[in-house]
Amino acid sequence: MTNKSLKVDEFYDDSTCWFCNWYPGGLIGVLFAFASSSRLKYAADLLFFSLNTARKVRGTYVISLWVLLIASVWLLFWSFGVVSALTFHFAPLVVMALLVSMFWTLEILRNVVCAAISRDVAVYYIVGADQSHWDRSLYSASTSWFGSICMGSLIVPVLHTLRVTARGLNRIHSDNEFMFSCADCFDRVTAILVKYANNWAYAQVALHRKAFMRASRDTYDLFTQKRVDVVIGSDLTSSFCVLSSITGGMLCVIVSGGWTFGTHKALTASVSTVSFFIGYFLVRIAMAVPQGAVCAHYVCYCEKPGCQELVASPVPERIKELLADVDVEVTKAP
């Protein structure tokens, strides 16, 4: 009876700890949703429009399923490698290297899906009919465009992390002028670097077979000329994909963490951490379908604004709204 009570108390303490850790995150998510309510309608309209177009293209989800299958098989072998690495002399370093390889490999697979989907959806926008071949797009993404995809998969996440860090430092050190200036300078530098490496480049990599850096620069310039950069700055579709991936990772943590806690309690933390990343990246690969469709939507809107398939696009109306708000703010300014 005493042992049973002790186990219940231990589980209660751990559960309370989990609740205290996750509750602020959930509260922040709710506040974020309310704060971004003015942008939610546009994000929903854009996702609906882009996914509706993607459904008209044959093999859109087949690409994602094939890559998910490849990722699952690779993760199976990767897991065996991690277990074997625990017996090495420098086990922490080997495991760290394996984690980096997992991040990069799964990011590459996600961008393979994104590039292939972007190409097929863009062809549909331009031609006005489904003339794509999903197998050819997947083959090209795995061969001809693969170098650019690998480079983008390595640079963009690092750059994005640096930019998020810079923005965080901006908020933390707002009272310290020196630190605020350093953080602001860091933020501006990363903002400039985004011109040469961004997630929107994969559509031009797939459509025009450009190198990644050139595609990033051309896409950035194109968005600036057409004022689409104003819309992208307040777009929530990427946030939706990331939050969906985090949710998938959390579900994996709940399942694997709960099972490990009951069978091998000492391994709960490590198994939960690995499970989160596995679930996160697998969902990210699945969410590459809407992300690729949205990417193709923006690029085709800039390159071919007169496309018949883009007549009902929510992008031009959103641009007008945002520019009108900017004009009102400028008028009210003293």
Automatic annotation (TrEMBL):
Family: Belongs to the CTL (choline transporter-like) family.
Residue stretches spanning the membrane: 22-40, 61-80, 86-109, 236-260, 266-283
GO CC, one annotated term: plasma membrane
MF GO annotations: transmembrane transporter activity
Protein name: Choline transporter-like protein
Annotated function: Choline transporter.
Keyword Cell inner membrane recorded: no
Lineage: Eukaryota, Viridiplantae, Streptophyta, Embryophyta, Tracheophyta
Keyword field: Membrane, Transmembrane, Transmembrane helix
Domain of life: Eukaryota
Membrane disposition: Multi-pass membrane protein
Localization: Cell membrane; Membrane
